[in-house]
Amino acid sequence: MDNPLTATLARQRRRLLQSYVVHVIWFVAMIATAIAHTSKAVATTSIGLALITIPPVIVYAALVHKTCRAIDPSSRTIGLIPMILMTIFLTPFESGLIVPAKNLMLSAKILRQLRSPEPSPNESFKPNLRRPISRLTRGSTSIRTRPTRRGSA
Length: 153
What we know:
Blueprint: H1 4-35, H2 40-52, H3 54-71, H4 80-89, H5 92-115
């Protein structure tokens, strides 16, 4: 953990996780009040509390994205602009639930790789599974040839 970005990413990821857990708890409470057919005041309060927890989640998810990209420019985390677009075009709850979950998973993967730079014994000889499959190996392993006519010599 020599890299200062590693410590920053761990701290930001911890804050994102805390705010994400609070958001999920309030989201579940909102769903429970809707299922229980509570009064209008209780439902409005639970929706308001769930909406209040979205901005911190989005801010911390954007910070985690920025730090992940500083460490690994090819990381597939989701940044602030896509989160804002998801909030506008979908719902604030989806952008508060989906995007942070993806950024949490990818940041955990990056931190795991940074903390253990040597490959584990199982990963040292792992075949490359992302290479394209050639035409010859797609359906069967045999090479197809033209059929020959029987009886003509």
